[in-house]
From TrEMBL:
Keywords per UniProt: Ligase
GO molecular function: ligase activity
SUPFAM superfamilies listed in its UniProt record: Acetyl-CoA synthetase-like
Species for this entry: Alkalibaculum bacchi
One Pfam family in the UniProt entry: AMP-binding
InterPro entries listed in its UniProt record: AMP-dep_synth/lig_dom, ANL_N_sf
Coiled-coil ranges from the UniProt annotation: none
Designated name of the protein: Phenylacetate-coenzyme A ligase PaaK-like adenylate-forming protein
Domain (AMP-dependent synthetase/ligase) ranges: 96-294
Superkingdom field: Bacteria
Amino acid sequence: MKRTSLDSWIKEKIGQVSKEELKIKDLESYQLKRLRETLQYVKEKSKFYNKLLKDVNLEKISSLNDISTLPFTTSEDIKEQGTRFICVSQNEINRIVTLQTSGTTSHPKRIFFTKEDQDLTIDFFHNGMATLVEPGDKVLILMPGQKPGSVGDLLKKGLERLGVESYIYGLVDNVNEVLKIITEKNINSLVGLPQQVFALAKYYKYNKNTDPISLKSILLSADYVPNSIIDELKKVWNCQVYEHYGMTEMGLGGGVACDAFEGYHVREADLYFEVVDPTTRLPVPNGQYGEVVFTTLTRKGMPLIRYLTGDISRIIEEPCPCGSPLKRLDKVLYRIEECIKLESEKILTITQLDEILFSIEEVINYDAYLTKLGNKECLSINISSPFSTGDCLNNAISNKLLSSATFGELIEKKKLVLDIKNKFISLDQSDGMHKRKVKDLRG
Ligand SMILES: [Zn+2]
């Protein structure tokens, strides 16, 4: 098994020159040094942190564990005080990313990057992509990439450094067209959103007129990646399917799977990860689930200290089968804000539904709503399917949910009522880039 490509990259970044294995002790002293420098820097340069860290004595941060004495940064802080985070002059800001936020009254969330910050992302994409492609391969990027500094643009630049040719298509708006490009340009690797690449695979599988294509790897990013989608892609294209974890606040990239396909190795020279209890916000031991928190160690424009991501995951305790001593973050279970508490105290998330519904052959996409029907809770699911299967498909879905460990008992005891509809869609229809979620309409 090939060791994660992040291993040698991080070893170089922390300045370990010996030919020996990456030493965690060296990595940790690098992280502590960077953490202290970052704290000093934001206290001086950022209005927000100058106030937040007013009473923090930096001399007392003498080990990485001391990070738990520092205050957190929330998404709300960024929304409300965006520009107060900035540590450089306005003309040093090279790119501003505005993120969609929920609620109509809240300010948009804006993240600011300098040229140096963007270069760190390119460097991560360069070294992270080495996990799945090598010089001579050709990658099709199915993510936005027209604007300079957008995710597709930075990914293309990273791939260039790796000696890998790539083409930016953007989000999949025409499946047929994408498949044609894959054939014409001899593409053998894809980077895209899970549901979009899934739709592409289904179209390829069922449309007998498409030319055969041969892929070696796929990287899925920007949304929860259901195992049911990974299984289908592997079946259709007989290729390796890797997952990337990241968010704009992390500088787009956060971590990438290795050939062991168990969680993601994280970019530890740029980001320090912790997992905390979502209620008490106290650190949880490795192996235990909690909210993912990160601190930037190398960012200049808008460094973030103990940023609460809203993602639930855990640090995997066991050493990685690939042999790297780098930290691994497990697959994200769900986002806290997308988690709906049912009256039975059980929780409902889109990720649970994804796993169940995408394993049904006829399902290509769906919307889900939770409503009230009299005094009962009702889960409405609108399935998009390229097969006109009517009630037959609806029954298959009901049965699958009924036999699931997550919802079976609730449905059987009639605590949760199902309302399933399906509509025919042409296989070449695809969605835009938005985080999919179950809408809570219980009022
Ligand atoms: Zn590994």
